[in-house]
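Maleylpyruvate isomerase family mycothiol-dependent enzyme, Streptomyces dubilierae. Tokens?
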Amino acid sequence: MSTTAGAEDRLNALRASSGRLHRLVDGLSETELTRQSFARDWTIAQVLSHLGSAAEICSMLLKRGAAGDMRAPVREDVLPVWERWDAMPPLEQRAAWTEADIRHLALLDSLAATRQDAFQIPYFAGPLSTAEYAGYRLSEQSVHAWDIDAALDANAVIPAEEVVLLWQRIDLVASRFRDGETLGRLAPAQVAIELTDRDRTQLLDLGAELHVYPAEPADPVATLTGTSEAVVRLVYGRHRPGIDALRAEGKVGIDDLRALFPGF
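Tokens:
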């Protein structure tokens, strides 16, 4: 399994995920837009609002980068945007997301086509290359699109081509968005991750920090078995008990892992 991805792979996946989400929500009624999504405390329309406000903010950051302005976003940049989007009714949130998403992708495509190697984007995590930036945006797009899809279809999954790219950033996500108290309770420990759709064991290493490595554990206390798609969603805090085919055997169970990865 490759550990890196180029900008074009991620941009293609971002476009595809965006297109699927447009087709999924375009015909929803206002009542359907107010249905609870899989994201905690957010309706379908509120997930679209989150994605739309992010697209607006990110378009601003892309323009800054194109102008050589590497100022990172601050609260004064984003708070008015969030407040305006939060105040919109559901149908307006969908319409505004549609427009903001299209504008963001068009701007990203135009800049990437001409400045892909040297272009830097001043992002929340610091200056990013186009490939790095597309990785962050794909994570948001894929997972939140699934939040909406899962509210409408109990069998929804993240598409396989996106899972491959999300997995390439799994250590970054897992190491940042883990629950410290749970990590302290479980560590030190090694958990083997047996991916049923891959031929290589992964190591979930629980210590002072948490990491996921493509390696055989030396002394695992437990084994997590399942598809790479289900494991990705577990790490993103989106495991569905009784639905997802994940099995944990040993001293670290599924409930421990769900507590370790509460999501965001």
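The chain has a mean pLDDT of 94.
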